[in-house]
Sequence to fold (716 residues):
Amino acid sequence: MAAHLHLSSPFSTGLPLKSPRRPRRIPSRSSLPAPVSARSASRPLRAAVIGGGPAGASAAEALAGGGVETYLIERSPAGSKPCGGAIPLCMLDEFSIPAHLVDRRVTGMRILSPSNLAVDFSRSFRPGEHIPMLRREVLDAFLRSRAQSRGAHLLPGLFTSLEPPSSLSSGEPYLIHYTSSPAPGTLAGTPSTLAVDVVVGADGANSRVARSVSAGTYSSAIAFQERIRLPPEKMAHYEDLAEIYVGSDVSPDFYGWVFPKCDHVAVGTGTVMSKPEIKKYQAGIRARVWSKIAGGEVIKVEAHPIPEHPRPRRVVGRVALVGDAAGYVTKCSGEGIYFAAKSGRMCGEAIARIWNDNSKDVVTEEELKREYLRKWDREYLWMFRFLDLLQRVFYGSNAAKEALVELCGDEYVQRMTFESYLYKRMAVGDWRKDLGLVWRTVGSLAKAGIMGKEVERLRTLAEC
Amino acid sequence: MAMALLSPLLPTFSSSSPNLSQKVHRPLLPKKRSSLSLTRCTGNGAGKVGSASVEEKLEGKKEESIPLESEEKLPLESPDSNGAAVKAVVPTFNDPRWIGGTWDLKQFEKDGKTDWDAVIDAEVRRRKWLEDNPEASNNEEPVIFDTSIIPWWPWVKRFHLPEAELLNGRAAMIGFFMAYFVDSLTGIGLVDQMGNFFCKTLLLIAVAGVLLIRRNEDIDTLKKLIEETTFYDKQWQATWQEDETPSVSKKE
Fold:
């Protein structure tokens, strides 16, 4: 159970542009050069990655590392986005993230039920195990600069539209129209065009790439978060502790959270069902943590959409979507940073592999699907399905949420959860313990269900 | 053509339509562009709201009117939030039998034994009260009461007796016939079945089935759950749907 509102979207470092080569820019459509074939012996594959979040930066890194001429287009310099900023432990190794980027190492995780039963969810942490928390602006900037050092060209600018070739099979290029960021001191950016063979859309929940290739839409949840700087004595409580609150006062279908950030805490909540009432739920989470945050100072308010399910089409022609643009955010925990970075890397590696193995002249939709989507689904589909089921079973009502918290106190549940969360692999348990767990789950749900029914009965009695 | 390629499985299950959010968002687009020159954050995560995070907001317009964006001190006394309705004074749950975050079981004693039924009743009332008046959690007096404190038999009693009767009867019949069929099909006797993994699984399924499917409506609820789950799966599979007609997408 961890944290997570993350959402990849094009934010950039604000680092000076260091691209060694200028990309091929076409000033206007009227002066287009003759279409170039997608493959010629002299020229490597050209790829554009739209969006410089974890997904885009990882894709660019993998592409550039695979010998592809890569352009990373990102909209705006360092902003932070509303994001829990928690990543699974295995991501540090897998993506070689240096330890100094980690602001906090959360070793305590507490989950509180609607009746305020608090359960320490992290008792089963082994020595050294923790949940790394970092700031997205720091992580994103690091991943981007690493992609650049691998040879990707960073283009600060706003992607505006994508012009598909008249025929996909001919190997004509896609034309990317974007407004490059204005130089310091000037107001207007310059409209520019870039011709590429493959496009990776990593531009987040409101993906323009997805829209321009009619990849379909998904329903989204909204996450709302306030960053609050606490007085030192209150901050001490959240030194290495994250709190999760469930209950209908906090969110009808998700949870509210308090996550420690570098020098403050993030207090927030999310919902799919009743987005217009997000303010009410934010007031709810504030009220629930009141005694712990009173006297704090709100330094920032953020809200962001979170995808609820994958897009209807994740690969269209030679355009592949990754991260939030593809809808890779888990249910239940709402985690997305790892999946964004991982999908970006998988997609980038797939494209480089297709290109390097390919004797033909083009990268086709079928190849992208086979090398990227098929592998992704095989690896992670079960996890998304499972978390979706958990969300349906446990986030439905207050009674179920009580049962969830009780179960979270179970040693075996904790071990299996963290095994899966921290290392992103299916934890294989002992089947006897699994059966016992099923039994306890049914028991807890039944008991909480009885309570829930009685509460309902009291309510109807009171109304009569 | 592009429209025709759209998968039939556009999301429909959520109560909130994605179109709505698109509509809200669209008017903001030109703004995004114009604010490009303004976006530069302090970068240490503690800065004031950068326009980058504001413009990304789903409901940007609404958010921008919140006074919170200027620094706001949270008052010490009571929660109050952005004009949302929260009572000025939060009442707390009070019951003489609720001591130190749990029910004082001594006060529930009747004839030398704990009256668990009364404990359940008291907890039900507390939970209803908390639903109506969510209470701030605090570190000084954590809640430690959970349902495992109450032994299993008061819970069983809570099922209406006729219902328990029905469930028992069903479980016995299903158990008997399953044992009979397994025996007749495989030749494994009842005693041996007890030591057999497959038979234990069957037993578990039977018990779970009897507990979960108590009346016909339960089947509907379960069906709904399964449907919703398969719907999510279909959303994942949607991208593969056009595989049957790959030529269409290629020859645009």
About this structure: Confidence is low (pLDDT under 50) at residues 1-70, 78-88, 244-252 of chain B. DSSP finds twelve helices and five strands in chain B. Strands of chain B lie at 72-73, 98-99, 102-103, 109-110, 113-114.
